[in-house]
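Sharing a chain and its predicted structure for anyone who wants a worked example. Both blocks are below, sequence first, tokens second.
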Amino acid sequence: MPKRSEEMLTDVWTSLMLVWITCVPYTSMTPIISQSKSLQTGSTARAKRGWVWNQMFVLEEFSGPDPILVGRLHTDLDVGSTPIKYVLAGEGAGTIFAINEITGDIHAMKRLDREEKAEYTLTAQVTNRDTDQPLEPPSEFIIKVQDINDNPPQFVEGPYRASVPETSQVGTSVTRVTATDADDPVYGNSAKLVYSILEGQPYFSIDPNTAIIKIALHGMDREMREEYLVVIQAKDMGGHMGGLSGTTTVTVTLTDVNDNPPKFSKSLYEFVIPEDLAIGQPGGKVKANDRDIGENAKSTYNIIDGDERDVFEITTDAQTQEGILRLKKPLNFETKKSYTLKVEAANIRFDPNSGAPFKDTATVKIAVEDSDEPPVFSKPTFVLQVDENAPINTVVGTVTARDPDVTGSLVRYFIDRHTDLERQFNVNVDDGKITLAKPLDRETDMWHNITVTATEIRNHSQISRATVAIRVLDINDNAPEFATEYEAFLCENGKPGQVIQTVSAVDKDDPIQGHYFEYRLIPEMLNNPNFTIKNNGAKHDTFRRQKQEMYFLPIIVTDNGNPPMSSTNTLTIRVCGCSREGIVQSCNVEAYVLPIGLSMGALIAILACIILLLVIVVLFVTLRRHKNKPLIIKDDEDVRENIIRYDDEGGGEEDTEAFDIATLQNPDGINGYLPRKDIKPDLQFMPRQSSGPNGVDVDEFINVRLHEADNDPTAPPYDSIQIYGYEGRGSIAGSLSSLETASSDSDQNYDYLREWGPRFRRLGELYSVGESDKET
């Protein structure tokens, strides 16, 4: 049953209270024990709770090797007569904290670090020492570790790097540093930090509370000093004596601003440039130095003053930041020997707050050096013209060149024969006159392009070239002729005066006024009653095929050139039969067109019949060849094992006319010619009867058969090979055919055939199988 509140209060006061040691060094700790006094509010004979203690103890963290007393437990049951034992359980019990079973003293056995664990929860109980039976219910209490200043501040993110523009104002923020302290920030000043600068003054300052680093000196110049090393200290205990401290470094870099103008290393530059310097080539370099870096040091160069500024230009080298003086126009020592220019270098980026002129100027003097220049043609290209068929040595034109040097060397002229492979032109080496070496034909080449070189006499390495384009002018040297070979067809029943053909002519010449041709018959046919020529057309009279089938009409074609050229061309005219509508149907010599009158459907039907007949013929020829296919022997391992295939089925053992079996046995049994049974002859051929003594040789037998096969008209149009098993009388083996065997019951052993090699292995297996079947 639960106790009433008054009874519980009596139990508390009648229990022994534990006095603990707080926040004093171990050497000064003395246990203080207070005895509880009994408060009797009722019968003392009732059962009471024997003991109780405070539920929280505070103990400073320590790092000493000796155990430290945390507190003492005591109960009023401990009167000496009852064997009691104090038991401790919970976090760290038995490892960090230990209890004296008899006295109840609790000691810390290991180092206590608040930063690792700030408090421990344990349970204490009193039991019988002999029986381990609990005498009191267990009670829970907490041991709290009190913080001491044992951790210095640390800059976890250090060392630091920061940057700030040069010439920044005083008080400009550079960066902020942060230090941390592992001590308890809510107990005492162990974690209260104060920042200060140990190194880096008077250039920088730091706020002691916020740790913001600022500029402390006016006009810091990067060109004088670019990098600073600042040492920052953080101290706990509010910066008072005895506090712990930590340091870090901050590397501050001054970034560049455009506060320096470009500056030429000298105010006057002098260059000597040869007059033969190629356009676009560099003639000199200038440079303006800038103490700034990066984009702030980049400059651009310009020519702002000077005589004939359009002769030169200046560009900027992006890598070296130099000004490259280049030539825009050719130099001529004989015309101008020197130039004076004023060059300016200016920064690309400009800071309007600086107020300084970020540019500089220098003077450039250029002296032109005389060079041995090649000859110069009066024109880079010469255009000349000459009549075709002009005689050899005709002057086409003249090219001129001179030496531009002061000395004025003589010039010689030559033709580059790579441009005149056929050597059609010559040039006078002294005066440059170009003459014809061969006659020219405009109809072959209308233009000729050659290259003429001019060379100094005193220096043959100085060569210049000019292109000469020669146009060949046309003269009337080609007669006109028919554009094609004309062949006209006229109807024998045509009307007189009908135009039968219109002809045209071509002329290879190209007159300025254009072509105009005149057509006429030869003088011998001017009075011809059959044909007339009028307006480029041929007209005819009435004709009959029975009288004349073909006419050859000579026509003279004359052009309008000076002098006029003419040629005689022949027009072939055929007389044909025509329909009433005047459509040509046939001519005696050859049909001009097929007769008209069949419809498209009829033509398609005729074409289909022709294709069908062709297919039938092809099938018939294929089947015929397949039927007459020769006996083919397929070569396997041995020719004596081949199988001869026939297209027709034999008559079995009673068929004795399929082939002559005596031929396979012995040629002695041949009495004459046996006709072939594989094909049915179309002609009856009577062979020559063979005569001779018995025992004819195999070679002679084969020759006879070959002669008969070659002269047999019923033989198929392909070679036929027949294999015979008879080897001849000179062979020890005799006939290999088994057809002559007198008895089939042979006891001969054929195992030796397997020893003859792979060619006889199959034969041995066949005879072995036969022996085994016989035994079976």
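Comments welcome. The first helix runs from residue 5 to 13.
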